[in-house]
Specification:
The chain is α+β, with helices and mostly antiparallel strands. It contains 18 helices and 12 strands. The protein has a 5-stranded mixed beta sheet with strand order 5-6-1-7-8. Strands 9-12-10-11 form a 4-stranded antiparallel beta sheet. The chain has a 3-stranded mixed beta sheet with strand order 3-2-4. Bound molecules: magnesium ion.
């Protein structure tokens, strides 16, 4: 039986800040842009007690927690600590698949002779991470990736959850929201249909699940039953920040796919910017209806963290896929070869000279400020055909910066 660990640092960016600055310890700390238009890149556990979460607009975080301490991101520092953490992983197995700076799958099946069983290796890695960095991690141990990933999140922070041989029995009582890949859109649909737990999904009629979730339905049922044959794919370069979505209905046109890549690029750029990180490579991933996974990767001319550069790279990559008659069920974008973005302006769009682009960005930031509860991205502005979004996007392109606008004729009278 395979032994797979999923290890995830606890509130990584915020914990690094609290470690480096003792005055931040015990306080509700978030990492993110100092102005209220940014988003939370990471929240300390003290901040989470107030309901503050990563990816939340900063204004909302301030509303929820009056004593919130906002620390500007130091991407270089996080990359440095991440290397120390991954070095500990590599001490125990070469089969490390990084999911982000602070999270990885490890296949330790062949390491048991040296270090003991999966639980012992997880305990040892957690201790070594504390020694090397002073920071805690949470671990899940299981015979498959799906269960390991769920397990690492069950007992945070500083948790260790070992999934027994009866994986399905372990998963059965968990609410469907715990399922990796079931997002806020899918969960209510499933709940309406009476699927409340992973056990309900495991027992579901495959046809009914396929009607509810599309071609993803049968896979969900198998995962819920603890059947996940996916291997840990080792890649020393895999530390990345990514976004991906599985669609209920397969995408069949290049235009549909390109649109999803724009949404992903915007999300990735937002996360990179919030973390003060720039990427030197972009990867596009497509999963076809028959579960074939295709990826294409390109190195950028210079490190970037803006939506436009990442999306442009995605479009170049998209042309390298064989898309004829393809039915695509999942699209993803990830930024790789991460490094500090100190030299890069903390904006979502890099080319400051291009007025049109800057106009859209300013609107984006002001829209965020005004409608802070609802995450608004460049992609959603393009997609949202409501009059409000159209007006907002059109104004600065025509009229320059808002401060220079002439008073309206109505007010003059
Ligand atoms: Mg983490």
């Amino acid at each position: 039986m395979r032994q797979i660990l999923h290890i995830d640092m606890d509130a990584f960016f915020a914990s690094v800040e609290q470690r480096d600055d003792p005055s931040l310890r015990g306080r509700p700390v978030v990492v993110g842009g100092a102005n209220r238009r940014g988003v939370v890149a990471a929240a300390s556990y003290e901040a989470r007690e107030f309901g503050v979460r990563s990816a939340m607009p900063m204004a909302e975080a301030h509303r929820r927690c009056r004593n919130l301490v906002v620390v500007p991101p130091r991407g270089g520092r996080y990359a440095e600590v991440s290397r120390q953490v991954f070095d500990v992983f590599y001490e125990h197995t070469p089969l490390v698949e990084g999911l982000s700076l602070d999270e990885a799958f490890l296949d330790v099946t062949a390491s048991r002779g040296l270090f003991g069983d999966g639980a012992a290796i997880a305990r040892r890695i957690k201790e070594r991470v504390v020694e090397a960095t002073g920071l805690t991690a949470s671990a899940g141990v299981a015979s498959c990736k799906f269960a390991a990933k769920i397990a690492s999140d069950l007992d945070k922070p500083n948790g260790l959850t070992v999934v027994p041989a009866d994986v399905a029995g372990f998963l059965a009582p968990l609410p469907i929201e715990r399922m990796w890949g079931i997002g806020p859109k899918t969960a209510p649909t499933l709940r309406r249909l009476g699927y409340l737990t992973l056990g309900d999904l495991a027992k579901a009629d495959p046809g009914a699940l396929e009607r509810a979730l599309g071609s993803w339905g049968p896979e969900v049922r198998e995962l819920a039953r603890g059947n996940d044959p996916r291997d840990v794919v080792p890649d020393r370069e895999a530390k990345s920040i990514g976004a991906e979505v599985t669609y209920d209905t397969d995408l069949t046109t290049r235009e549909q796919i390109a649109r999803t890549l724009l949404a992903h690029a915007a999300r990735v750029a937002e996360r990179l910017t919030a973390a003060g990180i720039a990427a030197s490579a972009v990867v596009v991933k497509l999963k076809l209806h028959d579960f074939t996974i295709l990826t294409r990767r390109m190195t950028l001319p210079s490190p970037a963290s803006d939506t436009r550069t990442i999306h442009d790279a995605c479009l170049v990559l998209l042309d390298r896929f064989p898309l004829e008659r393809a039915r695509v069920r999942l699209t993803g974008v990830s930024a790789q070869d991460l490094g500090p973005a100190e030299a890069v302006q903390p904006t979502l769009f890099r080319d400051e000279k291009e007025d049109k682009r800057r106009g859209v960005e300013n609107v984006l930031l002001r829209a965020k400020e005004r409608y802070g509860d609802k995450p608004i991205t460049f992609a959603s502005l393009l997609e949202d055909a409501s009059p409000r979004a159209e007006r907002a996007a059109a104004k600065p392109v025509r009229g320059g910066s808002p401060g220079e606008r002439a008073p309206s004729p109505g007010r003059r009278r």
